[in-house]
Design brief:
By secondary structure, the protein is of the alpha+beta class. The chain is built from ten helices and 14 strands. Strands 1, 2, 3, 4, 5, 6, 7, 8, 9, 10, 11, 12, 13 and 14 form a 14-stranded antiparallel sheet that branches.
Length: 475
């Protein structure tokens, strides 16, 4: 047997001989799976059918729509003179003109709009976005919008004076019927105040004038339809026709990809995170006992004299603890993923689709998270030498930043070992949505593997420091 394997085998044997440690490792798996199950079971949030866009993605599709029928080709023009929000104007509040085949949720569409903070945009089919004129709309800076239909091709324009027009972009809505619905719309998503952990539903109110439609109009009267869904709204939508070509409208919701925990309990990963935290606490305690056992018994001098040099002694213990914790993490995460998704689906919660590579990343990454955490605690144990102090230090480094980071801001989730929880992020993202991206909602301010790399860096630094101390002080 190679010399490097002898101390590894010896450390594994020491671990197996202490029955309470083996039981604790099994308990970590059990606690992980059980708490994940309970978190999913208590998340009773049946939401019914979630709209699906033309590309098959889940979408938010809730807004106030004032419309009429357009047969064949035609053009819709309107001027927006005001856009305000209640209680605040959300950055992606939208008001403008839209064309769609029907008023069903998830239908194809093309729209030109003013927004709270992103200027004029042309958007279509929930995921496509092109910029137009910058700046906010107001009485001193009104914006003219135009949509022109030619068959399946919808072209958007904007203008500052209604005379000189600039083309923004064109979109092709395949299979568009001859008669469509076209008109005005207003919507406003949730917004987050700095430091808040929950979003606040908002509403937007817009003023339109110089509204005109040119083309085939089977029915000229305007009709108001509140396109309603499960997206949280601030108030009931309203509309008022001030004159033949002027309207005031209020709407709440969003027209965008569904990307976050907008609907309670739809993120299966929340249950996995809860299970991971519980298992991490068990791993911290178990590893602290394992790392400091020879200091408690006073046998560390004998072990160092009879075994390898001090650096290898510490590395061997870190590898053993990390390997066992990783194996427990792999097993627990695989079981918990299957169970929690089944329970949430049975409860009627919407579940975002999860790809095979994404699932593999969560399972492997969570195992590595627990393994690196165990190796970090081994290093802490070698430096601190006392079980209780090592446990406290492990909790402060590995658990507390996540709790505080969810309450005080994202910097703790970037620069502390808690960043490793980003490996469990699976929710989709979109540049058209900003209100959902906070850690309590399943998002992290770093990418999955970058977050795990932060924990790996802390572990490497701790092992380096522990090795130096072990070599330069009495055992």
């Amino acid at each position: 047997m190679k010399p490097v394997l002898v101390p590894l085998r010896a450390e594994f044997a020491k671990f197996r001989r202490v029955r309470s440690w083996v039981i604790a490792l099994c308990a970590a798996v059990t606690v992980f799976v059980l708490l994940s199950f309970l978190s999913a079971f208590e998340s009773r949030a049946p939401v019914g059918a979630v709209p699906v866009g033309p590309g098959g993605e889940a979408v938010s599709d809730t807004y106030m729509f004032v419309h009429q029928a357009l047969a064949g080709d035609g053009t819709l023009t309107a001027r927006v003179t005001a856009l305000s929000g209640t209680p605040e104007l959300a950055p992606w509040a939208k008001a403008g003109i839209i064309l769609e085949p029907d008023t069903n949720q998830g239908t194809a569409y093309a729209a030109v709009m003013v927004t709270g903070d992103h200027g004029i945009r042309m958007q279509d089919n929930y995921t496509h976005d092109r910029p137009g004129l910058p700046g906010r709309v107001g009485l001193s800076s009104p914006r003219w919008l135009r949509l022109s239909r030619a068959g399946d091709i919808i072209t958007g324009y904007d203008s500052t004076d209604g005379t000189h027009w600039t083309e923004i972009a064109s979109a092709r809505l395949a299979g568009l019927p001859r008669t469509v619905r076209t008109g005005l719309f207003v919507t406003a998503p949730e917004y987050f105040v700095a430091g808040a952990v929950a979003g606040t539903p908002s509403a937007a109110t817009a003023s339109f004038d110089w509204v005109s439609v040119h083309g085939g109009l089977p029915s000229r009267p305007w009709t108001g339809t509140a396109i309603a869904g499960s997206y949280p709204v601030a108030s009931a939508p309203t509309w008022k026709q001030v004159s033949a070509s002027a309207f005031t409208m209020t709407g709440s919701g969003d027209i965008a990809p569904l990307v976050g925990d907008i609907i309670s309990a739809q993120w299966a990963g929340a249950s996995i995170v809860n299970g991971t935290i519980a298992a991490l606490l068990v791993v911290i305690v178990l590893t602290a006992l394992f790392a400091t056992s020879q200091y408690r018994r006073g046998s560390v001098r004998t072990a160092l004299a009879a075994g390898p040099h001090r650096g290898q002694f510490l590395a061997t213990r870190a590898v053993v603890a990390g390997s066992l914790a990783s194996a427990a993490g792999f097993t627990a995460t695989a079981l918990a993923e299957v169970i929690t998704r089944h329970v949430l689906a049975a409860n009627g919660s919407y579940l975002f689709p999860q790809s095979g590579p994404g699932l593999a990343r969560v399972i492997i990454g969570t195992g590595l998270l627990l393994g690196l955490a165990a190796a970090l605690v081994v290093a802490l144990g070698a430096m601190l030498r006392r079980s209780a102090v090592t446990v406290a230090a492990g909790i402060v480094l590995l658990v507390l930043p996540g709790i505080l980071g969810a309450q005080t801001g994202n910097w703790l989730m970037r620069f502390t070992p808690t960043a490793a929880f980003a490996i469990q992020a699976t929710l989709p993202r979109s540049s058209l949505v900003t209100s959902a991206y906070t850690p309590p909602n399943g998002y992290f301010p770093v990418s999955p593997w970058a977050g795990l790399a932060v924990l790996a860096a802390y572990t490497a630094a701790a092992l380096t420091a522990a090795t130096w101390l072990l070599r330069h002080r009495d055992a």
